[in-house]
Automatic annotation (TrEMBL), chains A, B:
Alphabetic keyword roster: Cytoplasm, DNA replication, DNA-binding, DNA-directed DNA polymerase, Nucleotidyltransferase, Transferase
Molecular function in Gene Ontology: DNA-directed DNA polymerase activity
Free-text function comment from the UniProt entry: Confers DNA tethering and processivity to DNA polymerases and other proteins. Acts as a clamp, forming a ring around DNA (a reaction catalyzed by the clamp-loading complex) which diffuses in an ATP-independent manner freely and bidirectionally along dsDNA. Initially characterized for its ability to contact the catalytic subunit of DNA polymerase III (Pol III), a complex, multichain enzyme responsible for most of the replicative synthesis in bacteria; Pol III exhibits 3'-5' exonuclease proofreading activity.
Subunit structure comment from the entry: Forms a ring-shaped head-to-tail homodimer around DNA.
Pfam families linked to this entry: DNA_pol3_beta, DNA_pol3_beta_2, DNA_pol3_beta_3
Protein's gene: dnaN
Locations listed in the record: Cytoplasm
Signal peptide: none
Descriptive protein name: Beta sliding clamp
UniProt KW Transit peptide keyword: no
PANTHER family, sorted: BETA SLIDING CLAMP, DNA POLYMERASE III SUBUNIT BETA
Domain annotation DNA polymerase III beta sliding clamp N-terminal: ranges: 1-127
Family assignment from sequence similarity: Belongs to the beta sliding clamp family.
Gene3D superfamilies noted in UniProt: 3.70.10.10, DNA Polymerase III, subunit A, domain 2
């Protein structure tokens, strides 16, 4: 194996693939990154057995020539060193060649590194997925859907299936849902599919995988093909494949949890409500469940309050755009509301209560494709 | 106690004082910040018993009126909550008043906080230092001196006196020295003094204190008065007093460690040498003592090398401006050189060797008021 590659594009690809590599792996070869050079270009592969990433750097495209290939071949290099090394190399070009015993030389500018490589034959082969179930979304929309739901996954391993985001498709609409059983975040979006009447459910992608994927997705409308199988999901970008295992188990049916009617409706300015809850959180962070109390006052105002007998008390009023329905006093986890308000883009939000002991919803005013649901907290 | 204060100036002062407060204190009252309101203004005090900071916000200055004082008085508030609260308050003004039982109300915009205060009578009184031994420096010069030495203090508690920076004064020159016994950083500067012939030595200020002080010092030439006593040092800024205890013990005599002659002199470009050593550190960080090998080649070049039998090897050449004297091969802790090169401003540096087994020096080419000394590492 022997090639010279443009440093910028190589570093970018190495850093993408590195997101799938864990130094704490129990399988030694997976601490490495695989470099596979063919006449067409360079394929880089990484995997922690939950996530696998494969990128391809073409020899050239319409505008640029990226690689000089002198000899094809393959090697696996310890990612922990290799990634830092290529990032810090001084030149615009990087030369890499492999000699006997997997001895690998990396040269750039005045710097020469010799690394002990690993046997590429030991590296596991990534699965070939059947592409029967597939749909397409623009990157920015997928990125946003993940951002707006993944924060609500459970961090507890007691119900592993809740540590993922549930993907469902029906009638040309994709729904992503995350819940830790105290709060729920849901986002819908229409999608394009190549298969007629694509329907699937209970496709639960680990939150950790989606967080890594979101670091790679860009804010462009370049398409992502999403391939669904029973055990894996594959996100196909241009020159990048992102595989994730799916979580086992039955995701809870969440549709029936969402109340259809409400008794008290508020319309509120999002930023003011968020700032008020963040101030209340300065005290409520010390309290079990981060409890905050909300009550509707007269004159279209609500009061947010948090009390800790040890530290003190905070009280603040927020003026609503609209208040409709019954008076209410309710207590909830203020941090959960903060998390949801942060991923909403609109200037105003609706909060709809169905009673002091029933779940309530939070929604942006500018779209009905997003919904957040919260359980109240009993305080007596 | 009852006042209304401009939020911006109050937050700035609260954050300064907070640098001296530790939530892990064993003396409960020291987890609080003392607020003392007199007709002249507000004094804020914090202390972790190693460092104490006192700031004064005047009622007004030539340009602005900062405070409306309705009632004088004192209170101590839990810093952990108080600091975050004032930072996040919504209004331009903050009203604070104390009622019975130290119950304190903080009001700003729509937000009202009630905090359980602590008894200000319990708060320790800061010492009044004798100002017999005192000198003055511009803030930016003191800040720079600290920055260029404090990184070299020892982090080991085995010789506590080495965890501080030694201040010495003689003949109108202040010398700061830090060493962990493997490397030494020294910086000199002429200073102004009010006392004739100010001479002192073995004034060892904890590195931790100086790091906190440096977050407060600005890059202006506003003066700092430095007051020296046997057990404490006081840095007096406009409206801010920074006290630190001194370290016990005899600081080693370092002057005699610095070689007066050399056998091999190099002049090198600083940034290239730093980048080369940082690349070598990618491997040497895995090696005991972060060992790097340097040898002088022909053609005014040196070679930097680092080897780990497990991982591999890195080699790189750097072209010197000048090479004078004997050939040499020497091994040293590369990380120590990196640290020193980072605090040097000049474009070029001198390295002077006196033999493969003797300490060597690193100095900027543009001033002789700074010197770094390193022990070589035996590699056999």
């Amino acid at each position: 194996m022997h090639f010279v590659v443009d440093r910028r594009i190589f570093v970018e690809n190495v850093q993408h693939v590195n997101k799938s590599i864990s130094s704490r792996t129990t399988i030694p070869i997976l601490a490495g990154m695989k470099i596979d050079v063919s006449s067409a270009g360079i394929t880089l592969t990484g995997s922690d057995s939950d996530i696998s990433i494969e990128t391809f750097i073409p020899k050239e495209d319409d505008e640029n020539e990226y690689i000089d290939i002198f000899q094809e071949g393959r090697i696996v290099l310890q990612a922990r060193f290799f990634v830092d090394i290529v990032r810090k190399l001084p030149g615009d070009k990087i030369e890499i060649f492999v000699q006997e015993q997997f001895a690998t030389t990396i040269r750039s500018g005045s710097a020469v590194f010799h690394l002990n490589g690993l046997d590429p034959e030991e590296y596991p082969v990534l699965p070939k997925l059947s592409e029967e179930q597939m749909f397409q979304l623009p990157q920015n929309i997928l990125k946003n859907m993940i951002h707006q739901t993944v924060f609500a996954v459970s961090t507890q391993e007691t119900r592993p299936v809740l540590t993922g985001v549930n993907f469902e498709a029906e009638d040309g609409v994709l729904t992503c849902t995350a819940t830790d059983s105290h709060r729920l975040a849901m986002r819908k979006v229409p999608f394009e599919t190549t298969s007629d009447d694509l329907i699937f459910s209970n496709i639960v992608v680990p939150g950790k995988s989606l967080n890594e994927l979101n670091k790679i997705l860009t804010d462009t409308d370049d398409p992502v093909d999403v391939v669904i199988t029973d055990t894996q999901v594959l996100f196909k970008l241009k020159n990048l494949l992102f595989y994730s295992r799916l979580l086992d188990g039955n995701y809870p049916v969440t549709k029936t949890m969402i109340p259809e009617q409400s008794k008290t409706d508020l319309e509120l300015p999002r930023k003011e409500l968020l700032a008020t809850l963040e101030r209340a959180f300065l005290l409520s962070k010390e309290i079990k469940n981060h409890v905050v109390h909300l009550r509707v006052l007269e004159n279209n105002e609500i009061e947010i309050m948090s009390v800790s007998s040890e530290i003190g008390k905070v009280k603040e009023k927020v003026t609503c755009e609209k208040v409709k329905g019954e008076e209410i006093r309710i207590s909830f986890n203020g941090k959960n509301l903060i998390d949801a308000l942060k991923v909403i883009d609109s200037d105003h939000v609706y909060i709809r209560f169905t009673g002091a002991m029933s779940p309530f919803t939070l929604q942006p005013t500018d779209t009905d494709q997003m919904l957040h649901l919260f359980s109240p907290v009993r305080t007596y």
